[in-house]
Amino acid sequence: MTLSLMVNGTKFREAISIDVHRSLGELCGYFNVRCSIGLGSFLPFGVGSAAQIVTESNRPVLTGFVEQIEVEQDTGSHDIAISGRDRTCDLVDGYAPSGDKRRWKGPIAFDRIAKTVLADAGLSAILLVNEAGALQDITDKELVSFENSTTVFDFLDTYARRLQVILITNGDGNIVMIRASKATLQGKLIRNIIDKGINILASRLTVNRAYRYNKYVVNSQVPVTFSDSDPSEVINHLGEAVDKDIRPSRILMIDSEEPMTSDVARKRAEFEAAIRLGQSLTYSAVVQGHEVSPGNPWQINRLIAVTDDLCAISDTLLVKEVNFRYDLTTGSTTEIVATYKNAYAPEPITPTPTEPAVRFSDRGA
Question: pTM of the full predicted structure?
Answer without folding.
Answer: 0.86
